[in-house]
Amino acid sequence: MSPFYVLDPEVPGGLGESAELTYRDGTYPLVERLHFEFGAGRYDDDLFQAHPVCLVTQPLADALRRSGLSGFTLDSDIALTADDNVTELEPDWQIPQAEWLKVTGTPGSDDLGMTDDARLVVSEAALAVLRGFAIGHCDIVPYMG
Q: How many beta carbons lie within 10 A of that of residue 78, not counting itself?
């Protein structure tokens, strides 16, 4: 069996005020509607997160669609904004086109999976696709199951 890895993508912002969450006992909240708000000090990786969700830029989303990998869907019905600090400190920066990477797989089995504490687990094949894009601020460690 191929190895699997736990990824901890960069956090260039957080959930915005119009995000809708359902809180559940014993696990992370379920995000019903995603609003991601970029903050100052981002690194602009193609894979990023706001606990408990992951997002990918449009080019990475397109590559994932073509990849044949298992354990995810992509959703473009999201709100992306930038906070006032970004607008003030970096007036030329533009919000990237991105999609919600909805991880549906079982960690250690499917190419993409999510642990009970919302950590992203990917197969070696998925990691190979991701490494074709900017993920330099993503921590990657072996998944021990």
A: 17
Give residue 58's pLDDT band: very low, low, confident or very high (50, 70, 90). Answer: very high
Average pLDDT, the chain: 94
Note if the pTM is more than 0.85: yes
List of residues 6+ apart from 110 with CB closer than 8 A: 70, 71, 104, 123
Task: Please state, in angstroms and rounded to a whole number, the distance separating the CA atoms of residues 21 and 30.
Answer: 6
What per-residue confidence (pLDDT) applies to 1? Answer: 61
Q: Where are the domains of the chain?
A: 4-142
Q: Which of 14, 73, 49, 38 is nearest to 138 (CA)?
A: 49
